[in-house]
Specification:
Length: 108
Protein backbone atom coordinates (compact mmCIF):
# COMPACT_ATOMS: atom_id res chain seq x y z
CA UNK A 1 0.00 0.00 0.00
CA UNK A 2 0.99 3.61 -0.33
CA UNK A 3 0.07 7.00 0.99
CA UNK A 4 -1.03 7.70 -2.59
CA UNK A 5 -3.92 5.23 -2.15
CA UNK A 6 -5.89 7.65 -0.02
CA UNK A 7 -9.07 5.57 0.25
CA UNK A 8 -7.53 2.39 1.68
CA UNK A 9 -6.44 1.16 5.10
CA UNK A 10 -2.97 -0.34 4.70
CA UNK A 11 -3.16 -2.83 7.59
CA UNK A 12 -4.80 -3.28 10.97
CA UNK A 13 -4.54 -5.42 14.07
CA UNK A 14 -6.01 -5.79 17.52
CA UNK A 15 -3.92 -5.13 20.59
CA UNK A 16 -6.09 -5.99 23.60
CA UNK A 17 -8.92 -3.44 23.52
CA UNK A 18 -7.14 -1.15 21.07
CA UNK A 19 -7.42 -1.18 17.28
CA UNK A 20 -4.11 -0.40 15.58
CA UNK A 21 -4.19 0.92 12.02
CA UNK A 22 -0.93 0.97 10.07
CA UNK A 23 -0.30 3.69 7.51
CA UNK A 24 2.72 3.12 5.26
CA UNK A 25 4.33 6.19 3.74
CA UNK A 26 6.92 5.16 1.15
CA UNK A 27 7.40 8.54 -0.56
CA UNK A 28 10.43 10.78 -0.35
CA UNK A 29 9.80 14.31 0.89
CA UNK A 30 11.95 16.08 -1.73
CA UNK A 31 10.69 19.22 -3.45
CA UNK A 32 6.95 18.39 -3.35
CA UNK A 33 6.64 18.49 0.45
CA UNK A 34 3.30 20.31 0.49
CA UNK A 35 1.81 17.79 -1.95
CA UNK A 36 3.17 14.91 0.14
CA UNK A 37 1.71 16.38 3.32
CA UNK A 38 -1.63 16.88 1.57
CA UNK A 39 -1.69 13.21 0.50
CA UNK A 40 -0.83 12.15 4.03
CA UNK A 41 -3.60 14.33 5.45
CA UNK A 42 -6.16 12.83 3.05
CA UNK A 43 -5.07 9.32 4.01
CA UNK A 44 -5.28 10.15 7.72
CA UNK A 45 -8.79 11.50 7.15
CA UNK A 46 -9.73 8.14 5.61
CA UNK A 47 -8.46 6.38 8.74
CA UNK A 48 -10.41 8.72 11.02
CA UNK A 49 -13.60 8.21 9.00
CA UNK A 50 -13.02 4.46 9.19
CA UNK A 51 -12.78 4.65 12.98
CA UNK A 52 -15.75 7.00 13.36
CA UNK A 53 -17.97 4.89 11.10
CA UNK A 54 -16.97 1.67 12.90
CA UNK A 55 -15.71 0.29 9.60
CA UNK A 56 -13.71 -2.37 11.40
CA UNK A 57 -16.86 -4.30 12.34
CA UNK A 58 -16.61 -6.34 9.12
CA UNK A 59 -13.12 -7.60 10.03
CA UNK A 60 -13.66 -7.81 13.79
CA UNK A 61 -17.36 -8.54 14.41
CA UNK A 62 -18.49 -7.81 17.94
CA UNK A 63 -15.35 -5.85 18.82
CA UNK A 64 -15.81 -2.71 20.87
CA UNK A 65 -12.51 -0.88 21.13
CA UNK A 66 -11.84 1.66 23.87
CA UNK A 67 -8.95 3.27 21.99
CA UNK A 68 -7.36 3.52 18.58
CA UNK A 69 -3.82 4.01 17.34
CA UNK A 70 -2.81 5.15 13.89
CA UNK A 71 0.78 4.10 13.39
CA UNK A 72 2.56 5.83 10.52
CA UNK A 73 5.72 4.18 9.24
CA UNK A 74 7.82 6.37 6.96
CA UNK A 75 10.32 4.99 4.49
CA UNK A 76 12.25 8.28 4.55
CA UNK A 77 12.94 10.81 7.28
CA UNK A 78 10.11 13.31 7.59
CA UNK A 79 10.70 17.09 7.77
CA UNK A 80 10.62 18.80 11.15
CA UNK A 81 7.36 20.67 10.44
CA UNK A 82 5.60 17.30 10.17
CA UNK A 83 5.76 17.04 13.97
CA UNK A 84 3.70 20.24 14.30
CA UNK A 85 1.11 18.84 11.89
CA UNK A 86 0.80 15.58 13.83
CA UNK A 87 0.79 17.31 17.22
CA UNK A 88 -2.18 19.47 16.22
CA UNK A 89 -4.00 16.50 14.65
CA UNK A 90 -3.43 14.35 17.71
CA UNK A 91 -4.65 17.09 20.07
CA UNK A 92 -7.91 17.24 18.10
CA UNK A 93 -8.27 13.43 18.13
CA UNK A 94 -7.44 12.88 21.80
CA UNK A 95 -11.04 13.31 22.96
CA UNK A 96 -12.02 10.51 20.53
CA UNK A 97 -9.40 8.15 22.03
CA UNK A 98 -7.34 8.21 18.84
CA UNK A 99 -3.59 8.58 19.10
CA UNK A 100 -0.95 8.79 16.40
CA UNK A 101 2.51 7.29 16.56
CA UNK A 102 5.11 7.56 13.83
CA UNK A 103 8.61 6.43 13.06
CA UNK A 104 11.00 5.90 10.21
CA UNK A 105 11.45 2.34 8.98
CA UNK A 106 14.91 1.18 9.95
CA UNK A 107 15.05 -1.91 7.72
CA UNK A 108 15.63 -4.17 10.71
Amino acid sequence: MSVKEKDTIDAMAENDDELVLLLADNLTWGIAQKEHLSMLQKKLNTYIRYIDSRGWEKEFPGADYSSFKIEIVFRYQYPEYFRDFIDSAEAALKKRNIRIEYNVYSGE
